[in-house]
Amino acid sequence: MTASEHGNFRKAAATLGTRESTIRGGVRDLEDRLGASLFHRHSGGIRLTVAGERYFAMLAKFSSTSRWCQGRSRAHA
After folding, report:
1. Cβ atoms within 10 A of the Cβ of 38, count?
2. How many CB atoms lie within 10 A of CB 9?
3. 20 to 30 A from 4, CA-CA: which of 18, 58, 63, 66?
4. Where residue 23 sits, what CATH number does that domain have?
5. Phi-psi region of 39 (alpha: psi -120 to 50; beta: other; left: phi over 0)
6. Going by C-beta distance under 8 Å and a sequence separation of 6 or more, which residues neighbour residue 17?
7. Domain limits at 32?
8. Quick one: average pLDDT of 5-15?
9. Residue 21 has what pLDDT?
């Protein structure tokens, strides 16, 4: 998600304190597993494909649901 927020693998790597090659490799592996490209790559950076937009929207929804569930379980503990 950091890469999509920055629109650039290099800036995402700097934010996460890792190497650009690590980010690129992780994204490539994920795309291979999903069977879809998540990013359009161009000389000015990257932008999400339609599949990427759907994937990250699903992740955001999952993350939100997960936080809600954790809060509910703590409230009932």
Report:
1. 21
2. 22
3. 66
4. 1.10.10.10
5. beta
6. none
7. 2-75
8. 93
9. 96
Enumerate the β-bridge partners of residue 40.
47
Two structure tokens written together for 39: 């990013």
Selection from 48, 24, 19 nearest residue 36 by Cα:
48
pLDDT, tens digit (0-9, with 9 covering 90-100), for 13-58? 999 999 999 999 999 999 999 999 999 999 989 999 999 999 999 9
What SS3 class is residue 41? strand
In angstroms, the CA 49 to CA 4 distance is 10
Give 76's DSSP letter.
Answer: T
**What are the structure tokens assigned to 71, written together?**
């809060």
38 secondary structure, DSSP code: -
Residues 41, 38: Cα–Cα separation, whole Å? 10
pLDDT at 8 > cutoff 70: yes
As beta bridge partners, residue 48 has: 39
